[in-house]
Amino acid sequence: MTTEQMLAEIREANLSYLMLAQSLIRTDREQALYRLGVSEETATLIGNLTPAQTMKVSQSSTLLCRFRMDDELVWNLLTSHGKSAANEGIGRLHAAILLAGRHQEAA
Q1: Residue 93 has pLDDT above 90, yes or no
Q2: pTM of whole model > 0.85?
């Protein structure tokens, strides 16, 4: 993949992310804050973008979204390699609880 192709992929991901974020914010703001892991202020900014502004912001060469799971514990809970289906479900629930707690801390 060339640099130009990679930048095009980033721009496409940015546009998809912004469109999804706007849809979530406009449909169910509380769920959007949790699912996107953004603050009230950021949600307001994203939700109020015009189509032209959305296109302009999405053309950045920097990826706008980021991984919220930035520690090994959450990744291990989410991937649950080699675990039974019951334990996998518990691991995913535990990861969701950890992420929800982080959302509350950020708010």
Answers
A1: no
A2: no
